[in-house]
Amino acid sequence: MVRPLVILILLGLCGSLSGCVFSRPMVAGNPVFVPAGNEDAAWERTVDVVHDYFDIARENRMIGSQPGVIETRYRIGASLLEPWHRDSYGLENRLESSLQSIRRKAIISVTPAQGGYLVGIEVFKEIEDLPGVANNTAGGATFSQTSPIRRDLDLVTGQSSPSGWIALGRDEALENEMLRQMQRGCSR
Fold it and tell me: CA-CA distance, 118 to 36, in Å (whole number)?
């Protein structure tokens, strides 16, 4: 009884401390100005940063003064046990993704500006909404030792209906981290 209480208190402390004490400073604005003299260099730098976090679904490059858009595929949020994935930024987001199915998708716009480009990043976060309990069991597809063989070929059952997703808004922590990476790469 005491051990679960201690674990809950420690998790609560970690969640509350990760918000203010250990957070990095916010990037000033979204979009940010990225100095670049070459359209291709700015675009490739943006694609490199996006690849660190997401898989790209489609790209529409800049044409003249029209902005370019990069849209990513949804990615299931990394848990505490997946430190090599960067899509869940911060302890609070990693803990949330460990306890509940979270997915994210990013839309990045690159707009030509005087002396460089304006890069805007929007990361949308969604939580899974299961319509009911999934009735899969660990040994549902194996043969039972105590009963005769059944000829039922539908032993493995899945969800009765597909999952739904509920929008949680934008993930500003991840947006700011990606924008920081953009600025850091262009200042070299």
Answer: 10
Query: Per-domain residue ranges for the chain?
Result: 25-130+164-188
Taking the domain 25-130+164-188, which CATH number applies?
3.30.530.50
- DSSP classification of residue 13: H
Give the list of residues 6+ apart from residue 161 with CB closer than 8 angstroms, or none: 131, 132
The pTM of the full predicted model, rounded to 2 decimals, is 0.68
- Provide the pairing of β-strand 102-113 with 164-170: unpaired
90-110 tens-digit pLDDT? 888 898 888 888 999 999 999
Neighbours of 24 (CB within 10 A): 11
Distance CA 40, CA 86 (A): 25
